[in-house]
Amino acid sequence: FFFSLSLFQYKFRDLTVEELKNVNKTYPNFTFSMNTYTFKDGSQKDLLNFSGTVPVKYGKSYNIPIHLWILDSHPFAPPICFLKPTANMGISVGKHVDARGRIYLPYLQNWSHPKSTVIGLIKEMIAKFEEELPLYSLSSSDAARQSELLSYIAKITEGEIDMKSKSKIGGGKNEGCFNKITVVGAGDLGIACVLAVAAKGAADKVVLLDLSEGAAKGGTMDLEIFALPNVEISKDFSASADSKVVVLTVNSLGNAQTYLDVIQSNVDLFRGIIPAISHYSQNTVLLVASHPVEVMTYASWKLSAFPKSRVIGVGANLDTERFQYILTNLLKAQVLAKDAWIIGEQGEDKVPSWTSCNLVANQMEAMTACNSREKVADRAMEVLKGKSQRSWSVGLSVADLTDSILKDKRKVHSVSTLAKGCCNINSEVFLSLPCILGTNGVIEMVKLEEDPLVQEKLQSSAGSIHDLQQQLKL
């Protein structure tokens, strides 16, 4: 093997060579070489890599081209795996493959030497591809775009381009669009967001990215039939290029049995979406509406590598707006309403809080005013409990948030933001807190009135969310 001479930087050279001999025996069509690999942080290394095809039966037999990179700590670290489609093949983004063709498998996540081997990895890859074919045949009109994408991927893997580069594939076709929003997911929530954003009039263009299989149906078909101005429907990630805000509404509809399985399924779905969105809109603000919003916002932040200010969740914005409305219009407590917020975890564990005490100097009067405020807040919370969050109401909330971002309104909203450092929270969790929003997302977090009970509830929510995140495979 010529490559045995090139593995001087590999820590476990003999083990690596022995394993790759076994790969060569089983898959003699694979070709081996040494090339430069560029990691997400821009660092580069010369790594052994090999490519070839693996046989997959999906109705009929297919040869799926793959490209594996062997890290210099192999076999104690898993390979980095990609599809290697030809110009007439398109990548089917799914549970195990993202938009760049990066392959994610349980085998890789659970890699452990000596139990895990490259041969075992390829066998699982074949099994998973037989459940969900990762490639499809492109029409001639799509082949040119695919060729451009393949060229970009080749440059990444050959170390010719930095992942943080400003260049964008297909970015030119939307250059005339100043305020552009992309909504990812064409379910009821996604369509509600499109309609609400379009009605608000804040965006010059709204793109609905429909990632569902098959032809357009249901609401998507109706949107096409009645053709709203400045609304585009697409299945291609490149249509999202140069978006100022990207709204994520997708939720996995898999057959998960437990709550943890449902969330893991959503994380797996995001793993195929966020890198592509981040590539086409590198300066966008990610606005997460998928459930559970705190965990999915955290996942979006980790997968995008964006600064925390540009990854936010819809959080308790809708509840806060309703809370303030109830205080002002139903309970006639206008003075209280302007400083009232719903914060923390979306759902039953949300908690009312205040950014100003509005109390008088006399301690006795202050205590009376405080008790009065709490009674009014309790009544408002009772009314709020009867209000469900329908798709259209969440859509209106999303439109409200995007309007503040696009128009740089510097308005305060209760949104899911990184709460580490607030209220003695030491873990990386996202909770709803009052934040000033502008063009680049969160400008500043607004200081809350100190309340030991509120802080205790926030810390409890942070603890349970952190425990859940620790069980997920990101």
From TrEMBL:
Which gene name does the record give? Answer: Uevld
Which regions form coiled coils? none
Recall the GO molecular function terms of this protein's record.
Answer: L-lactate dehydrogenase (NAD+) activity
**What sequence ranges are listed for the domain UEV?**
1-139
Pfam families linked: Ldh_1_C (PF02866), Ldh_1_N (PF00056), UEV (PF05743)
Protein name (database record): UEVLD enzyme
Q: Which reaction does it catalyse?
A: (S)-lactate + NAD(+) = pyruvate + NADH + H(+)
Q: Which domain of life is it from?
A: Eukaryota
Question: What is the role of the protein in this entry?
Answer: Interconverts simultaneously and stereospecifically pyruvate and lactate with concomitant interconversion of NADH and NAD(+).
**Single GO biological process annotation from the record:** protein transport
InterPro entries per record: L-lactate/malate_DH, Lactate/malate_DH_C, Lactate/malate_DH_N, Lactate_DH/Glyco_Ohase_4_C, NAD(P)-bd_dom_sf, UBQ-conjugating_enzyme/RWD, UEV_N
